[in-house]
Every structure is written in structure tokens, then in C-alpha cells.
Amino acid sequence: MASRIPGPSALDDPEAQPVVEGRPGVRLRQALQELPSYVPGASGANASVFKLSSNEVPFPPLPAVISAIADTAEDANRYPEMYGDRLLRAIAAHHGISEDQVIIGNGSVALAELLVRSMCVEGDEVVYAWRSFEAYPILIQVTGALGVPVPLGEGGTHDLRAMAAAVTDRTRVMLVCSPNNPTSTAITQADLIGFLDSVPSDVMVVLDEAYTHFTRSADPIDSVPLLQTYKNIVILRTFSKAYGLAGLRVGYALARRRLIRGLRVASTPFGVSAVAQAAALAALRQQRQVDERVDAVVVERERVVSALRAQGWDLPDAQGNFYWLALGERSVAFANEAMESGIAVRPFAGDGVRVSVGESEANDIAIRLAERWAPSRAAGRANPSAGPVTSAPRGRT
User: Fold this and answer.
1) What is the pLDDT of residue 396?
2) Which residues contact 227 (CB under 8 A, 6 or more apart)?
């Protein structure tokens, strides 16, 4: 099952290091042999299993998006616009900024990798919360930089004070994910401003807002105006989540013009396909319908979270299109039982389980399953409370 703990990397397999006529084969960098594996959400064994493991929205693309995809596919023999000029203009207009403050990429994770690669050389440090998006340690280590994971605070939130205190003269980048994947907690505008004021101006703060559309907190982040005040902030957004284009891989970053110019030089030429650009442009033009879908997901999220809390679960404040069950050592067992019940969820062994908000029928299955694992009925099981997540990848060396 895809949600089980991955085995050793293929790079550790002697067969992956061929020997020809007594001579050793090509060897990849040592850093790659030590990379943790990115584990995708389980898709289920058959069509009867609902996929609640990858934070996808449960809706198909909007009709206008499907039409744009079909129209663009006819010209698949042609290269796309190199920088996605039409999409850039639309994104800039949507946010009320200049198009030279926008760069698009093959999903926001590719842009995060570009940012770290553009900022760091071997020995530089990148500070990030943990547990957070599991791609962060991978893209950091690939560059030769050192990851500095800072444990989440109580309730699965970013401990911004501890993150600021982790900065040294070797720190080049800080990664802040809000809402945080996988705990679904969001930081406030006031906390973000206080954090930015405490971070040295030569340290890049990457604000990963992949799930920002689902936030309904009392003091939500309003990040774009901060670009005028803080020269070191970069905002990451994606069309994979709220816009429902996860299969097309298109995201974007917003930053100061000087930073965007440098990032474009270092970016992959034609990094976003013409089909993805056209689909994203069409989705952006359907903002009202997108917002209606997001509202429907939020309503369903609140229904599920309320039901789980009534069962006795102490859940973190869910602000993404998913929620977190801190099941500890029982996480994989829960995921296995979930699959048998008809839903695929995403376990993080030793920490907890992330469950996406999906179709109502799938969410009802999740509610019934969670009741069997609720604290009041979980005799002999690990305490599934929402305390801090402490396990972390290799830290500063």
C-alpha cells in the first residue's frame, strides 16, 4: 500500500550501481543517497475506495477549464509561452500587483525548490517547522544545504519564536507553511508580521500558502500587501488545491521585482505546459465558481470536525481542506483499517494521520471510523491527542 513506510532507496541497492568490465558505474552525489523518500497519498486498490489522502478537492474541473484544456491540446506540437505571459498578467491583476512580481512554475513545490537552490550553497541553513510539508527536507538536502527543523508548538502550530531563535549567520531561507500541511493549522496576520519583524532582512521568508483559500480564522493572513513592506518575503500559491488542477501541476510565486528577475534566470525554460497555463487561466477567470466550491469544502470540513470533537477528539484548529488525527504509533494501523473501510488516508508513521475533506459519503465513512478510534473508546491504543509533533529529520550538523 502506498501509505506504508517506504523501504530503502534504490540508490542504496548494489544493483543500482552497475559494474561494467570491472569498472565502477556512474555514481550520484552522496547527498542523494541519503534523501528521505516522498510518499504520495494512497489511491486505493479500486474505484470503490474514496481517496482522502492527497488533499485534492472532490470536484472535477469546471466546464470552462475542460474546454480550455481541449482547445490547447490541439496545439501540443508547439512550445508554450516561456514565462506564461498571459497567465502572469491575469495573476498580477488578480492580486493587484505588477506582472514582473510573478513567476509561474511546475507546481508551488517546484518553485520552493527553485528558491532554495537559488539562495543556498553547501553549508547554508534552511529553517522550517516540523512536522510540515514532507518535500521540504528533500529539496533542502538536494542543494547541499542543512535543514534546521523546529518542532511544532502545542496544537500543531508553527512555533514562530523558536524558528526566529534558530536563525544563525548561516541561515539563508525560512519556510513557513500556513495552513500547515499536515496539521492544518494557520498562523495569524499579527503573528506573521511579528515574525517578519524579528527575522534578519537578508534571510528569505518563503510563505507557502497552498491552502490559504480554505482559511476562516479570526485573523487570516493577508500576505500580498506585505510585499510592499518586507523585501525578503516570497509568497507561494498553487492551482492544485482550491482551483482543482492538481493533475496539471501549476503554481506561482509573488515577490519583489529584483527577486523575480533572478528566479526567472534560474528557472527551467518552458517549465509549465501550455495545457496547464490555459487551464489555470480559465480557472482564474471562474473565480466565483471556485469560491463557491471552496465554501462547500469549508462547510463540510466544519461538519466533520464538529462530529469528531463530539466523539472526544482534541483536534488542531483545521484551516486547510484536511484535518489531523495525532494517533502516534497507531497511525499506520488506522490507515490500514481506513482502507478496509473504503477510504484512503495519509499516515505519517509515529505521528498521526492526515485526512482530506472529500465527498460527503467518504467523510461519513471517516467519521464512523474515527468513532471506533476515539479517545473515549481507544483502550490500549496510543493517545490520539493533538499535542506537539516532535519527530524530525536530521537537524543542523
Assistant:
1) 52
2) 97, 101, 233, 235, 254, 255, 256
CATH code of the domain made up of 63-284? 3.40.640.10
Q: Which CATH number fits domain 37-60+289-377: 3.40.50.410, 3.90.1150.10, 1.10.357.10, 3.30.930.10?
A: 3.90.1150.10
37-60+289-377 and 63-284 in the same fold: no
Instruction: Using the predicted structure, report yes or no on whether residue 204 has a pLDDT greater than 80.
Output: yes
Total-model pTM? 0.87
Give the list of residues 6+ apart from residue 86 with CB closer than 8 angstroms, or none.
Answer: 277, 281
The whole-number average pLDDT for the span 290-308 is: 98
User: How many CA atoms lie within 13 Å of 348's alpha carbon, on the beta-carbon side?
Assistant: 23
Selection from 211, 208, 250 nearest residue 357 by Cα: 211
Residue 344's DSSP bridge partners are 51
CB 55 within 8 A of CB 321: yes
Q: Report the candidate in 215, 250, 212 with the shortest Cα–Cα distance to residue 102.
A: 250
Q: For the chain, how many residues are written?
A: 397
What residue ranges do the domains of the chain occupy?
Answer: 37-60+289-377, 63-284
